[in-house]
Amino acid sequence: MPTIKRIALCLGASGITILLAGSLIGALKPVVAGGAPRDRQQTQERYLEIAEITGTVTVETGALKQQGRPAKVGDRLKASGEGISTGSNSSAKLAVDNGIGSIDVSENTNLQVKSLATLRNGAKTTNLAMNRGRNRVRVRSFRNPQSRFTIETPTGIAGVRGTDFTVVVLPSRETRVFTATGDVEVAAQSQTQRITGGYYSVIAPGKPPTQPNAVTATPRISLQLLPAPDEGKVRVSGTVNPINSVVLDGQVLDLSSTGDFETIATIAPNRRLTLVVRTALGEEQVYELLVP
Questions:
Q1: Could you say which of 101, 124, 244, 255 has the lowest number of CB atoms within 10 Å?
Q2: How far is 259 from 284, CA to CA, in rounded Å?
Q3: Choices 3.40.50.720, 3.40.1110.10, 2.60.120.1440, 2.30.130.10: CATH for 48-214
Q4: pTM of the complete model
Q5: How many whole angstroms separate alpha carbon 289 and alpha carbon 35?
Q6: Does 196 or 221 have the greater pLDDT score?
C-alpha cells in the first residue's frame, strides 16, 4: 500500500506560495494469482483475480457504467466486458493468471477486460480498457514473442512485452503513460512513441502522443491559496510533475500539459482542505491546508 506522509500547512488568505519536495519512491512486489489449482481445465483459463481490496470496490459485467456488486478477494474477471471500479479512498490489486504480472488499481478508477486469449502456439494476449483513474501494471518479460499486453484508453493504446508502467486517465480524458522499467509503446492518431524507463508521454484527445519526457527523481509541488469571488470558497492552484495525480477533498483535478492545476473549493466547517499528490509509482503525499 502507498506510504502516506501528512504535512499540516497554514496558508494566509492573501496568498502564499510554497515549494515542497520529498522522496516518495517505494518498493512494490508483484502478486501471483491464486492458491491451489481448481482443476486442469480452469488452470488453462485466462483471468484476472482480485488479490487485495481496500474500501469500496465493485465488480461489473458488460458496460463499464453498468450496476455491479461488491467485489471480494478471489473474484475472477474472465469474459469481455467484465471489470472492476474503485471508489474514493479505495483500491484493489489484480493478479494476472499464471504469474504474468499484477495490476494496482487506484481510487476512482475502472478497468475492464476486452479480451484474454491463449493462442495455439502458447502465446498469451491480454487486452484491457480503462476510461478514468490510475492503473499501475507490472508484467514480466514474455517468453513467447507473440504474447502481448495492452491497455486501451479514450485517447490511445499502451502496449508492452514486459515492464513496470502506469496509465492515468484524467477527467478531461487525457491519457498519461509513465514507464518505471522496460519499454512501453503508446499509439494514437496513427503515431507511436516508445517510452523507456524513467520517461512519460501525454496523449490529449484527438492528438498523437507527445515526445517522451523525463520524470524528475524528487517530486515537487508548488501550492497557492487565494480568496475566491464567492463567500465560503477559496481558490487553490499549483504545479506538480505532469505525470502525478492531484486530488482535493476527494476530487481528481485536471492538470495541464505542464502540470498546472487550479480549482475553486468550498471551505468546510473545520476550515481544512486535504490535498493528495500521487506519484507515478503510486506513492502519496498528503497536505492538510488550513484556511484562516
A1: 124
A2: 16
A3: 2.60.120.1440
A4: 0.76
A5: 45
A6: 196
